[in-house]
Amino acid sequence: KSGKLWIAVYGLGLVSFDPATEAARLYSADESELGGEGAWALAAAPDGVLWIATWGGGLVKFNPRDQSFVRYTSSDGLSGIPSDNLYEVVIDRRDPAILWIGTREAGLVRFDTKTETSQVFRSVPRRPETISHDDVLSIYQSEDGILWIGTDGGGLNRFDDRSGRFERFADNVGIANGTIYGVIGDSRGVLWMSTN
C-alpha cells in the first residue's frame, strides 16, 4: 500500500526499499526482534501487516506502521507453531486471517491470526491421505482454494482443507525429482515447479 518493497534476506533480515526515494532500511536479525538467522519468506496481509517466516526465529508479525514485532515460536506454549525453522508463509485467498506455513521437519501449519492458534498436518507412514513429507518448502494456493505443496523429498501434494485430505504426486506423474523448491500456477491453471 505504501509503495515500498519488502525483501526477505536469509542470513541478514528484512529490508524495506522505497523506489521513489531509493531509500533502504535493514531490520537485521541481530538488532531487531526478527530473531533467528533472518527472514526466509514473507507475506503481506491486506491490513499492511507483514508475516515473516524465519530460520530459527519462528513466525514473526511485523507492523510497519508502528514498527512492532510479535514472535510466535515453538517454545511459546500458546501458538502451536511446531518449529522455529520456517521455509514458507502464504495468506489464504479465501480467508486472509489464515496463514499456511511450511516448516522444517514439522509439516504444514494452518495458523489462525485471529485466535493465534495452529493446526498441524504431519506425514504418517502408510497413510497416503496425509502429507508425503514433513519438510514443506513451498506452498501455492490456486483460485479454487486448493493448496499445492512442494516438499523436500516427498514431491508435490494437493491439499483440500475442506476435506482434510492430501493427494501425492511424484514420479507417478512424471515429476523427475521429489524436491519441489517452488510451485506457482498460471492463468490457464497449469502448475509450474522448480526442482533439483
Task: Annotate the secondary structure layout.
Elements lengths: L4 E5 L3 E6 L4 E6 L10 E6 L5 E5 L4 E5 L4 E5 L13 E6 L6 E6 L4 E5 L4 E5 L14 E6 L5 E5 L4 E5 L4 E5 L10 E6 L5 E5 L1
Antiparallel strand pairs: 1-2, 2-3, 4-5, 5-6, 6-7, 8-9, 9-10, 10-11, 12-13, 13-14, 14-15, 16-17
How is this structure best described in words?
- The chain is an all-beta fold and 196 residues long.
- Helices cover 0% and strands 47% of the residues.
- It has no helices and 17 strands.
- It has strands spanning 5-9, 13-18, 23-28, 39-44, 50-54, 59-63, 68-72, 86-91, 98-103, 108-112, 117-121, 136-141, 147-151, 156-160, 165-169, 180-185, 191-195.
- Strands 4-5-6-7 form a 4-stranded antiparallel β-sheet, with no helix packed on it. A 4-stranded antiparallel β-sheet has the order 8-9-10-11, with no helix packed on it. Strands 12-13-14-15 form a 4-stranded antiparallel β-sheet, with no helix packed on it.
- β5 and β6 form a beta hairpin.
- The N and C termini lie far apart (36 Å).
- The mean pLDDT is 94.
Q: Notable features of this structure?
A:
single chain; about 200 residues; mainly beta; 4-stranded antiparallel β-sheet
H/E element order = EEEEEEEEEEEEEEEEE
Secondary structure: helix percent: under 10%
Alpha-carbon distance between the two ends: 36 Å
* Computed Rg: 17 Å
Average pLDDT reading = 94
Shape by Cα distribution: globular
Summarize the structure.
This protein has 196 residues and is mainly β. It has strands spanning 5-9, 13-18, 23-28, 39-44, 50-54, 59-63, 68-72, 86-91, 98-103, 108-112, 117-121, 136-141, 147-151, 156-160, 165-169, 180-185, 191-195. Strands 4-5-6-7 form a 4-stranded antiparallel beta sheet, with no helix packed on it.
